Amino acid sequence: MSIPAATPVPREAREFGNYQLIAKLATGGMAEIFLARQSGVDGPAGLVVIKRILPHLADDEHFVAMFRDEAALASKLEHEHVGRVHALGQVQGTWFIVMEYLHGIALSRLLSKLSKQRQRVDVRVAAALVIQACEGLHHAHEARGPDGSLLNVVHRDVSPPNIFLTADGVVKLLDFGIAKARGASSKTRTGTVKGKNAYMSPEQILGKPLDRRSDVFALGAVLYELLTVKRLFHRESDFLTFKAITEEPIPDVRERRPDLPLALRAVVTRSLARDVGARFDTAQEMADAIRAAVATLGGPASSEEIARLVAAEFAEELTAKQQLFEQAAAAAIDADSSVVPNLAASSGQHLAVAPTVVDRPPRQHTNDL
Fold this sequence. Notes:
The chain has 369 residues and is α+β, with helices and mostly antiparallel strands. It has helices spanning 61-75, 107-116, 123-141, 202-205, 212-228, 238-246, 253-256, 262-271, 283-293, 303-329, 344-347, and strands at 7-8, 15-16, 19-27, 31-38, 47-53, 85-91, 94-100, 104-106, 163-166, 171-173, 364-368. The chain folds into 2 domains: 7-103 and 316-354, Phosphorylase Kinase, domain 1, CATH 3.30.200.20; 105-305, Transferase(Phosphotransferase), domain 1, CATH 1.10.510. The strands form 2 sheets. Strands 1, 2, 3, 4, 5, 6, 7 and 11 form an 8-stranded antiparallel β-sheet that branches. The longest helix is centred in the last third of the chain and has 27 residues, at 303-329.
């Protein structure tokens, strides 16, 4: 998990089971995210990210089931390009997930910055980013149950905020919070459409059955955006966005990027086909097609090239985050300290969310995954 702008956790609220909460990183519709350190584990190995279900949802069986499904699914996915989940636990009736700490930025941050600067992403870099995302996604799609049969995983929320670039230039696919797999205990409520609107497939919007090719469509939208630094389907309202995805002509990517190899245009076009059967059958097939399409350009960019781009655009922020990482890993922020480095100044953002106060040592139950 990444570190965005952070709000320090007050001293009286830091103890959480076997973990010490250091800073609140974000609050979403389902959970709040913390940078934490595992008690008794020194150095970098002890630094983790905790995703804790929001208090008002703790008694909602539907959301708790979704939360546990996310942990159960993510724990089965061990791949270089998928964010790692370490454990699922419960403290005083509140469920939480323990995830690996990742140092870097979300793809959405990079795209937003480049768009404001009117800069383009190098074609080889764009290709490399989507290839790595494809490979992580393919691993998820191929996940199998104890009996060896496919779980038929569909991520349903492949989008730039859920594609993470580490400072080392490695792509990680994150957030399986709304993914569906065979055997999951939670059910999608009638009339609910899940995912970030501008990256949904037509069949997802129309409430039709989904398979892995729905995620391929989302990857196609991400690839288009990387190549043009323009969101393909985003409109002023949900209705207009859905209409663009399901009805409007999809523009030729070469109209905005004439220098693209024809083979890469073909990849974009095929991945965005409204006819599910016309798309790539698997994310790996899409990755292979992208790799072949940029072969004449020298192949996809290396992780070192991606790392240089991330460093060039976010050097100050990454340095500030690394300092927090080092202090936390070295236990410089101890249980008696009331001071935690604030990252808000480095990003110009601040999350003013009051953390939950724990009045007594919490009871904890943890399942290692």
